[in-house]
Design goal:
The protein is mostly helical and 118 residues long. Helix 2 crosses helix 4 and helix 3 packs antiparallel against helix 4. The longest helix has 20 residues.
C-alpha cells in the first residue's frame, strides 16, 4: 500500500490542459486497460478484426495457406498493438482534438495532477 496521499485530480479546459502539458506543470496517468477499451470502441476494432480473420480463413481454405495464415496473424496482432499503444495515441491526439479530450475525461481513463515543485 502506498502511504503517501494522492494528489487531487485536476479538471482543466482543453486549452489549459495543452498549455500545462507543454509547460510541464501537470502529470498525466492513464488506466491502460481503460484506454485500450476506449480505443477499441472508438476505432471499432472488433468490426475490423472479424472480416480480416474471415478473409484469412478463406485464403487458407482456398489453397493460399501461408498468405491466409499471415492475414489471420495480422488480424490478431494489429488490434493488440493498437490497444497496447492506446495511452500514447490518445495523448498525441488529445493535443489537437478538444472533443477527444472531453471524451477521455468523461470516460475517466485519464488522471491529471499538478506536479510538485520539489
Amino acid at each position: 500500500m502506498d502511504s503517501t496521499p494522492a494528489a487531487p485530480a485536476l479538471n482543466l479546459s482543453h486549452r489549459d490542459f495543452v498549455n500545462a502539458f507543454h509547460d510541464g506543470t501537470i502529470s498525466i496517468t492513464f488506466d491502460a486497460r481503460g484506454a485500450a477499451r476506449f480505443i477499441s470502441a472508438r476505432l471499432l476494432l472488433p468490426l475490423f478484426m472479424m472480416p480480416v480473420l474471415g478473409i484469412g480463413i478463406g485464403l487458407a481454405l482456398s489453397g493460399w495457406i501461408w498468405t491466409g495464415l499471415a492475414v489471420i496473424a495480422l488480424g490478431i496482432i494489429v488490434p493488440r498493438l493498437i490497444k497496447r499503444g492506446a495511452p500514447h495515441f490518445l495523448m498525441q491526439q488529445m493535443m489537437d482534438d478538444e472533443g477527444l479530450y472531453r471524451d477521455v475525461v468523461h470516460a475517466g481513463i485519464m488522471q491529471v495532477v499538478r506536479r510538485g515543485d520539489g
